[in-house]
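Study this pair:
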Amino acid sequence: MQPSLEENFDWLSKERELWGKGFRLVAGVDEAGRGPLAGPVVAAALIIKPGTDLPGVIDSKQMTGSQREEIYPSIIENCLAVGVSASSVSVIDRINILAATMRAMKRSIDRLGAGVDYVLVDGNHFPQGIDIAGETVIEGDRLCRSIAAASVVAKVIRDRLMMRLDRFYPQFGFARNKGYGTDEHIRAIRKFGPTVHHRYSFSPVRQHQFNFENDDRETE
């Protein structure tokens, strides 16, 4: 059983520890979209009001799209500050997905403004250039409320972006797959070729883009 889903699990244990040490403005940071074949990677950073909780907010991957959308306003209302940033597919292809993720995370933290005391970052990589005390938390979106809340914000924002792209590229099913490499998505890339919103540095896209160009030459 995942500890974060137990009824008696204290989602704020890490934040309470930091608040008790005098770190009042604790920011949770997470991202959405490291794995997809299309679309940006989005990072969110937020500060929960000290001493408050966000019941019902868990790891975004454990929630449905409608559940995330429903609880999103409550997260925004109960945070002192929220920062969101994205790295585009061109940035991802140029500097790699990990570096692009760290860049988006740093910018999301920067957008919180001055006064942040401590930063909790999901995973095991801490963004460079952050002159604030902090630490990484492996599976933080399952252990820390602020990180879980950031994961929901990042996921909601990214899903909305992909649904907007679906209006222009309905053949790829972005509203359904959000850019992930589903069978439907792979078939569409093979049939239509990748778009400017695909990540050419990702082998499935690069492979099918090469095949698509060969198919074009054969029919000329």
In short: Residues 89 and 196 are 8 Å apart (CA to CA). DSSP finds eight helices and five strands in the chain. Residues 3-165 form a domain with the Nucleotidyltransferase; domain 5 fold (CATH 3.30.420.10).
